[in-house]
UniProtKB/TrEMBL annotation, chain A:
It comes from Tianweitania populi. It is found in: Cell membrane. Its main location: membrane. Belongs to the binding-protein-dependent transport system permease family. InterPro entries: BPD_transp_1_N, MetI-like, MetI-like_sf. GO terms for biological process: transmembrane transport. This is Glutathione ABC transporter permease. It comes from the Bacteria. The chain crosses the membrane at residues 12-31, 100-121, 133-156, 168-191, 212-237, 277-298. Pfam families: BPD_transp_1, BPD_transp_1_N. Signal peptide: none annotated. It is a multi-pass membrane protein. Residues 94-295 form the ABC transmembrane type-1 domain.
From TrEMBL, chain B:
Keywords: ATP-binding, Cell membrane, Membrane, Nucleotide-binding, Transport. Belongs to the ABC transporter superfamily. The keyword Lyase does not apply. It comes from Tianweitania populi. Residues 8-257 form the ABC transporter domain. It is a peripheral membrane protein. Pfam families: ABC_tran, oligo_HPY. InterPro entries: AAA+_ATPase, ABC_Ni/Peptide_Import, ABC_transporter-like_ATP-bd, ABC_transporter-like_CS, Oligopep_ABC_C, P-loop_NTPase. This is ABC transporter ATP-binding protein. GO terms for biological process: peptide transport; transmembrane transport. SUPFAM superfamilies: P-loop containing nucleoside triphosphate hydrolases.
UniProtKB/TrEMBL annotation, chain C:
Belongs to the binding-protein-dependent transport system permease family. It is a multi-pass membrane protein. Residues 81-270 form the ABC transmembrane type-1 domain. It is found in: Cell membrane. This is Peptide ABC transporter permease. Keywords: Cell membrane, Membrane, Peptide transport, Protein transport, Transmembrane, Transmembrane helix, Transport. It comes from Tianweitania populi. InterPro entries: BP-dependent_transpt_permease, MetI-like, MetI-like_sf. Its main location: membrane. The keyword Manganese does not apply. The chain crosses the membrane at residues 15-36, 85-109, 129-154, 198-227, 247-273. One of its GO terms (cellular component) is plasma membrane.
């Protein structure tokens, strides 16, 4: 188990480093920030001066080394727009993003787990058909469009909740439900097919041959085994939620990191883009690390293999 | 003789599949006495496993369906029993050992947990009592270092050891009846012999009644009191081990015995193979299911099902379902020069 | 393998998916000859006109209404589907070629090449795909070609992983071993023995990826990083329509429905293909 843990941590570190490198090289190709920050018609000398000030005139590799060195101290440079440390700007927006993602994951997983179990246990009934149709539609619906439609109905027409913004529970409901629909569709489909597979396993027959109560069998023998792939799925979905936050937060005017990144891209504010993407990737890596460890706990065979 | 422990009467089981109805078990009747060991032999698809599983509600329905029959266990009909009561019996009075312990044990639970489950369910034991009983059971089935190994997971055991764990689970609550379904099939010959020794030992010590389901006549010879040969969902022949092996009356039993490697066959002849394919149980059967593969079949075999009847002038309990007379047919063939 | 059409008619969902998909593709191809209004130039007199239907089967001049510049929504959806399908198919094919090639190389040679490639996959997977796409499009600019490349970049991983796994399994099978034993060259073994065995899983991945890429393309154009106006694109139409959401519900509704139907049909076709090629996974449905 210790060895499994160390391997996973090492892999996570390499992944973070890789992401930082990708982010660095990609952002440095984006147009000329000095030209953007200075008023139109600024002279070449002015541009050079600003580039020098921002350190953008030095060779790329030198910039990279400085960047990596600074990044490990949490320093992503000053935001061009806000004139404050980029990481600070991003961290201020992080709680909103985490709040929304966590609410969506919890809500979506619970609904998805119940719906998936019903679909598997009531196989061949109307209940299964309804769950499966909703899950298929949920997977085919882009989150941002669903968000717009829900805003149209519940905020614009009915006026039950605000159209966007942040602060109270009523602001959270609509975006959280929108994302939860996406989460629960994937979970319901996966869980259903896993459950159907596990129900056919020999060890479930063994459990029945022991005369165990149906509830015990479902929780300990069927559910436990069917949940293992779902755990991985939650990791993947978290990545999609965090990445998708750039779009959903825009739809709901949710002041999280995603919306900040979009604003930073429009303003060509590199340090903020870098810090934002790096932070999201870092959180994603942490979540995946946690999931790998959980996986190891749930499935003893994994622990041994690596 | 005392009242039988298990009495199966006219049990028929079918499976509804998209291709049609499969008649897996057809009109099977037999009795099993306290302390007896019954070996049920047949190829895959002979209905030997399905009939045993269907008795205690372990055949998934659908697609399975019990069409008719009674299964009296200690005088109560298992097929009419509510699921709750059946649950009480399974793992308690009736223990199971399944084939392929790799897939029959839950990979993500410790052996300890899987062993304790039936104990906690059927015995009024505290957790710590169940725990120490579980260790005892592992020691009983011959697993060394039981105290340490019990905390391990199935994949950390070897095939033979896993089968021993399976047996420990099956006998955990001192069942009256132990049903073992191909319990040694997945094992090496040496390991198989060890497991069989273990079962013989357990029988002697606890007087357990055993139904041993296998396709291997050799295993049955060393273990069973009574042999029951099944084919196409029917009992073809049934009787005490001695007479069945010495003078088989069913051509199918005769074929199974001839395909065993022993005596002169081992060195001189190619192993005998029963010609043809196992029956297609999709069609509703006409006649003796084995007739198409039977070189001794008479015309009657093809359109009338032979009843299972006492073999004339033989040990009591030797029953056969055949229209032909096998010993006579064999004698006739020897007299005729090839 | 089951006959294609009888297997198709047995699955209602698969049939539904195929029909919708074929209709969409046919309409997209035939768009210029359908007599639709100009999708780019509208008439300002017809601004924000609601959908007009005089009867169930007799739509008015703007069956889905018009947008804030008086352009016909239906026409923009149809012409937008051309862009979407072009970009999505391009990305899936490009990603497929790259992913399959790298997957074969990794699986066949194993060792250093394999671990390097798989490490690269891990790193890329640590960056949510949407962020990667966003970063790169922001950097290189949102042209059609760039979008294809960027979306392919988010797509190759899935092919590479599946194909690598398949190759690892196939290369140990008897027929490859025996081909080796009779002295077949590496390239020959790969193309004549391994490729046929990985094409079906790759095709299934391709359909599922197509659905994902369509959504991602819409998302990118929704945040302004897709095909640039005035060219019609579904995501952009949604973004523009948001401003008028309180008065003109039709601008955001219909392009979204188009996305849902397309993605749904592609998903259904993908599920059906998986079942068709691999009956063992039947229970997954």
């Amino acid at each position: 188990m210790i060895r499994y843990l160390l391997t996973k941590i090492l892999e996570a570190l390499i992944a973070v480093w890789g992401v930082l490198t990708i982010v660095f090289f990609v952002t440095r190709i984006i147009g000329d920030p000095a030209a953007l920050l200075l008023p139109l018609g600024a002279s070449a000398e002015q541009i050079d001066a600003l580039n020098a000030q921002l350190g953008l005139d030095r060779p790329l590799i030198e910039q990279y080394i400085t960047y990596i060195g600074q990044v490990f101290q949490g320093d992503f440079g000053q935001s061009f727009q806000f004139g404050r440390p980029a990481m600070q700007v991003v961290l201020e927006r992080m709680p909103a993003t985490l709040e929304l993602s966590t609410a969506a994951i919890i809500l979506g997983t619970l609904i998805g787990a119940v719906a998936g179990s019903i679909a598997a246990l009531k196989k061949g009934t109307m209940a299964e058909l309804i769950v499966m149709i909703f899950a298929l539609l949920g997977q085919a619906t882009p989150v941002f469009w669903l968000g717009i439609m829900l805003i149209l109905f519940f905020a614009v027409d009915l006026g039950w909740v605000p159209t966007g913004g942040y602060g109270t529970i009523s602001h959270l409901i609509l975006p959280a439900v929108t994302l939860a629909v996406f989460v629960c569709s994937s979970i319901a489909r996966l869980l259903r097919s896993n459950l159907l597979d596990v129900l056919k396993e020999d060890y479930v027959r063994t459990a029945r041959a022991k005369g165990l109560m149906p509830r015990t069998i479902f929780i300990w023998h069927v559910g436990r085994n069917a949940l293992i792939p779902v755990v991985t799925m939650i990791g993947i979905i978290t990545g999609e939620l965090l990445g998708g936050s750039v779009v959903t937060e825009t739809v709901f005017a949710w002041p999280g990191v995603g919306r900040l990144i979009i604003q930073a891209i429009e303003a060509k504010d590199f340090p903020v883009i870098q810090a934002g993407v790096a932070l999201i990737a870092f959180i994603f890596v942490l979540i995946n690390l946690a999931i790998d460890l959980l996986y190891g706990l749930l499935d003893p065979r994994i622990r041994e293999r690596r | 003789m005392s009242a039988p422990l298990l009495e199966v009467r006219n049990l028929s089981v079918v499976f509804d599949t998209p291709a049609g109805t499969v008649h897996a078990v057809n009109d099977v009747s037999y009795t099993l006495h306290d302390g007896e060991t019954l070996g049920i032999v047949g190829e895959s698809g002979s209905g030997k496993s399905v009939h045993a599983l269907s008795m205690v509600g372990l055949v998934p329905c659908p697609p399975g369906r019990i069409v008719s029959g009674e299964v009296l266990f200690e005088g109560r009909d298992l097929l009419k029993m509510p699921e709750r009561d059946l649950c009480q019996l399974r793992g308690g009075r009736i223990g199971f050992v399944f084939q392929d312990p790799m897939t029959s044990l839950n990979p993500v639970l410790t052996v300890e947990r899987q062993l304790m489950e039936p104990l906690l369910r059927h015995r009024n034991l505290s957790r710590s009592q169940a725990k120490s009983r579980a260790v005892e059971l592992l020691e009983l089935v011959g697993i060394p270092h039981a105290k340490e190994r019990i905390r391990q997971y199935p994949h950390q055991f070897s095939g033979g050891m896993r089968q021993r764990v399976m047996i420990a689970i099956g006998i955990a609550c001192d069942p009256k009846l132990l049903i073992a379904d191909e319990a040694t099939t997945a094992l090496d010959v040496t390991v198989q012999a060890q497991v069989l020794d273990l079962v013989r030992d357990l029988k002697k010590r606890f007087g357990t009644t055993v139904i041993w389901i296998t396709h291997d006549m050799g295993v049955v010879a060393g273990l069973a009191d009574t042999v029951q040969v099944m084919y196409g969902g029917r009992i073809m022949e049934r009787g005490p081990v001695g007479p069945i092996f010495k003078t088989p009356r069913s051509a199918y039993t005769w074929g199974l015995l001839r395909s065993l490697p022993h005596g002169e066959a081992r060195t001189q002849r190619r192993l005998y193979q029963i010609p043809g394919q196992p029956p297609n149980l999709l069609d509703s059967q006409q006649g003796d299911p084995f007739a198409p593969r039977n070189e001794f079949a008479t015309p009657r075999c093809f359109h009338e099902v032979p009843p299972l009847v006492q073999v004339p002038d033989s040990t009591s309990g030797h029953l056969v379902a055949a229209w032909y007379d096998l010993p006579m047919a064999l004698r006739a063939r020897q007299e005729k020069p090839a | 393998m089951k006959p294609f059409f009888s297997a198709l008619f047995r699955s209602k969902a698969g049939l539904f998916g195929w029909i919708i998909l074929i209709v969409f593709v046919a309409v997209a191809i035939a768009a210029p000859w359908l007599g639709l209004p100009n999708p780019i130039r509208g008439s300002l007199t017809a601004r924000l006109a609601p959908p007009t239907w005089t009867g169930l089967f007799s739509p008015g001049p703007h069956p889905f209404g018009t947008d804030q510049l008086g352009r016909d929504i239906l026409s923009r959806i149809v012409f937008g589907s051309r862009t979407t399908l072009l970009i999505a198919c391009g990305a899936v094919v490009l990603g497929g070629i790259v992913g399959v090639t790298l997957g074969i190389i990794a699986g066949y040679f194993r060792g250093f090449v394999d671990s390097l490639l798989m490490r690269l996959v891990d790193i890329q997977l640590a960056l949510p795909l949407m962020l990667l796409a966003l970063l790169v499009v922001a950097a290189v600019g949102p042209s059609t070609t760039n979008l294809v490349i960027v979306l392919a970049l988010t797509s190759w991983i899935r092919y590479a992983r599946i194909v690598r796994g398949q190759v690892l399994a196939v290369r140990e099978r008897e027929f490859v071993l025996s081909a080796k034993a009779i002295g077949a060259s590496t390239a020959r073994i790969m193309f004549s023995h391994i490729l046929p065995n990985i094409l079906t899983p790759a095709l299934v991945v391709a359909t599922l990826e197509l659905a994902r890429v369509i959504i991602m393309d819409a998302a990118l154009s929704f945040i302004g990083l897709g095909v640039q106006p005035p060219a019609p694109s579904w995501g952009r139409m949604l973004a523009d329509g948001r401003t008028y959401i309180s008065g003109a519900w039709w601008i955001v509704t219909f392009p979204g429905l188009a996305i849902v139907l397309t993605v749904l049909s592609v998903n259904l076709v993908g599920d059906w293909l998986r079942d068709y090629f691999d009956p063992r996974q039947r229970s997954v449905r």
